[in-house]
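Quick note —
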Amino acid sequence: MTPRSRATSFATRRSGPTHRASLNYRVEPLTQTEAQAVLQAVQQHRLAALYSVGLAIGLRLGEALGLRWEDVDLERGTLLVRQALQRIDGEWRFVEPKTEQSRRVIPLPAVAVAALKAHRDRQTWERKAAEKGEGWHETGLVFCAPDGSPQFAQNITRTFQGLLVRAGLKPRRFHDLRHACCSLLLAQGVPPGTVMEILGHSNIQTTMMIYREVTQDAKRQGIAKLDFLTLDPQTTVVNTVVNPRIRG
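Predicted structure written out below.
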């Protein structure tokens, strides 16, 4: 059978008004152990690289789904964010970044490079398999369906939560990986300004909101280390009776 490949076209539009996430959303940062557990839970899935890259560099889901191979340089270890993929009025559209800060070049950590290389090899295999059947939809997308067509965002989130639940982990949103990337970078001592540039935050206030959550969590862990000061209640009662001068 002759291999078949079909090109899929996309409309491109400038980013319009968007609903910004409420700063009242309770950010629950992942610890390093939790982050590793998440990666372990998704490693066998065909889109494991999507979740790994989402955690490693904090891409928004639309940015990740709109990423094309021409935007990725695995030799230099860089990734260009210049668009997001959205489903609008029944059509797939590339949407330009909503702010200048969202358009950015991100250096890739070794773990992300390795994940993307493995994902590229898997996609090559899927392309060959699809060409023997209904055909491959050529989109150039990094994270696509098994036939090359775009992925629906809700399917990504549903799959992600299912993988976590089956692994006995708390279900989370894909966007929580972005928060996790931010919190882990800040916990490693990366300056907030640098974290802001990596994540493409439009202002430092958004980064600092997550920073406050990280420092608050660190405070809780620090205070917890004082639990060794807890006295045996029975001992406290006995001492108070024997030595009436001991007061609270």
